[in-house]
Amino acid sequence: MSRLRAALVLGLLAAALAVTSCSRVEEPKVVLREVGGGRLTSEGLELDLVVDVENPNGFGAEIGRMEYTILADGVAVAEGRRRERVAVPARGSSRVTIPFTLRWSGAGALLSAVLEGGDHEWSIEGEVTLHKGPIARTFRFRETDHLPAPVDVTGDEGP
Questions:
Q1: What is the DSSP letter of 22?
Q2: Please, are residues 77 and 100 in contact by the beta-carbon 8 Å criterion?
Q3: Kind of pairing between the strands at 92-103 and 86-88
Q4: 40, 67 Cβ separation under 8 angstroms
Q5: For FRET with 137, which of 3, 35, 88, 104 sits at 20 to 30 Å CA-CA?
Q6: Residue 12 CB-density burial (10 A; 0-12 exposed, 13-18 middle, 19+ buried)
Q7: Do 52 and 94 form a contact (C-beta atoms < 8 A)?
Q8: What is the CATH number of domain 26-148?
Q9: Per-residue pLDDT tens for 36-75?
Q10: CB 97 within 8 A of CB 48
Q11: Dihedral, CA atoms, 61, 65, 71, 76, nearest 10 degrees?
């Protein structure tokens, strides 16, 4: 009986620790780093939005899900969901590349402006889920920065 009671007490302590630890989780920050890629296709311009996910917490964790909308010069150009887990060290960051296509249809003027070069306002907003063992917390984020358009745009090699 005392073993059962000790196991129950340990289980309750572990649950209480998990709940209090979870309540002190600081939200990760998503920082825009660059817009890269630049491959012209029949669909539009394939690009990569490169972000760093920063973990301000004193423990390593994983980003398990990221839902996002990408905006260029205030126009929503892509949305999607990443489900691949990315390890983020304690008080560190991990780089994440988000591929998307700036389509000819619906964003033709914006696509032309990006192809002309120069800086553009890029934004990413959405939700990111931080996992530590069985505990998961979801946070909203929005990050905006002025970044140069990719300079090395290549054409579709095609058949």
A1: H
A2: yes
A3: unpaired
A4: no
A5: 35
A6: exposed
A7: yes
A8: 2.60.40.10
A9: 888 888 888 888 999 999 999 999 999 988 999 999 899 8
A10: yes
A11: -170
Q: Tokens for 44, please give them.
A: 């539009």
- Residue 58 tokens, joined: 């004193």
Indicate the residue type of 21. S
Find out whether 25 and 57 touch, Cβ atoms under 8 Å. Answer: yes
Which one is predicted more confidently, 85 or 157? 85
Residue 89: CB partners within 8 Å, gap ≥ 6? 55, 60
Alpha-carbon Rg for the chain in angstroms = 21
Q: What is the model's pTM?
A: 0.74
Structure-block tokens of residue 11: 């289980």
CB of 112 within 8 A of CB of 105?
no
Question: Where are the chain's structural domains?
Answer: 26-148
